[in-house]
Amino acid sequence: MHSCYRFTGVRQDELDRWWPEVEPLLQRTFARAEICEPMKDVLAALRQRDAQLWIELDGGERVTGAAVTRLIRYPSSLHVQVQYGAGCLQPRWCGWLKCIEDWGRQHGCDAVDVMGRKGWEKVFAGVGYSHAYSVIRKTFTKEE
Q1: Which listed site, 11, 51, 81, 142, has its alpha carbon 20 to 30 Å from 111?
Q2: What is the pLDDT at residue 2?
Q3: Is 113 in contact with 132 (CB distance < 8 Å)?
Q4: Facing residues of 68 across strands?
Q5: Going by DSSP bridges, is the β-strand pair 77-87/111-114 parallel, antiparallel, or unpaired?
Q6: Main-chain dihedrals φ then ψ at residue 57, nearest 5 degrees
Q7: Cβ contact 39:30 at 8 Å
């Protein structure tokens, strides 16, 4: 196993190169977290530059993790929203968030919002993140 990892944003002209490795990572996360967005819509957003793909590469240039961010405009602020994270990011994720924060600042953002399961709150508390809100979901059945 390689001990050297790097985290980088994927340029649009590199998307086809990396997507075949990223898609299975995201699909596993989507299934586990019950994410409703179809993978084709994520790819379309990336192609249209409505979203940004980030990848973690090991020393052998194999994708070991991925994240998808979007810029979200509110009436008085602009946020980077980390919508999805997948793969072997957890041990190194706090360091990689710094890359996303820097990118957000370069794009005029005021904050970073990380969407994720409750356990991530503890992971990110040590690097200045705090709970902002929760999403509570009810899935409709056909009988309703």
Answers
A1: 11
A2: 43
A3: yes
A4: 53, 84
A5: parallel
A6: -115, 140
A7: yes
